[in-house]
Amino acid sequence: MKKERSKIIIDLIRNNIDVLQALQSLDLMLEDINDKEIKDWVNKELNGYDVKDKIPKYRCVTCVLKGDIQIGYNIYYDMVIPLTDKKLSEKCNNYQIIEPISIVKQYSIAENEIKNHSLSIDTNVSVVDQYSATSGEVIRAHRELSMYSFNNVLSIIKDKLLKIFKLLEDNYGNLDNLYIDFSDKEKEKKSINQIFKIIYNDNSKKIGDNNIIKGSVIGDENEN
Predict the structure, then answer these.
(1) Of the candidates 73, 92, 172, 99, which has an alpha carbon nearest to the alpha carbon of residue 133?
(2) In whole angstroms, what separates CA 19 from the centre of its chain?
(3) Residue (of 107, 202, 195) closest to 147 by Cα position
(4) What is the distance of C-alpha 136 from the center of its chain?
(5) Which uninterrupted H or E stretch holds 65?
(6) What are the residues facing 62 on neighbouring strands?
(7) What is the pLDDT of residues 139-172, one digit of tens each?
């Protein structure tokens, strides 16, 4: 018998729906699944992560600390700024995208509209200047994210959603009514393990700590 593909899979592949709509559909499908961590993942992708969360690896991106440096009467613009403090340097060169998927989508559009396809984040100039390894004074500073950071996050989440939908379709049949009967506990347990592996690329269920970058100001009293 010929298999009839679920509409949501076809629509997502053809970009008839966006990642936000797909996540909302998955949220409805998993309404009765007995696993808090998977539900939390969907919820946090929809509504954003907070300071108590461990951010998924695909939402952790690299960036470069840049700024304007004044040496004597000369100003050198958009220069890479090395730092003497290793811990601060690591914070400055890594960024965690905690925004909800709707905001990630808007940032991805912004990335496509600018010349170098990379967004930047303002940084505390006084702190950067204090630990700068340059011979001049840092008068402006920002962190430049790696190219297409938000586009890449959006693409990875879309790929995960497609894999989850195909998995659910294989296990439970057509998904067009956006409802899944999880009364078969053995099948549910198997599906939970498979979904978890797709989300986090492993079988571990140890989620949650206090490691996150918040806001955009670097300093000892901030997580950024």
Answers:
(1) 92
(2) 13
(3) 107
(4) 35
(5) strand 60-71
(6) 94
(7) 999 999 999 999 999 999 999 999 999 999 999 9
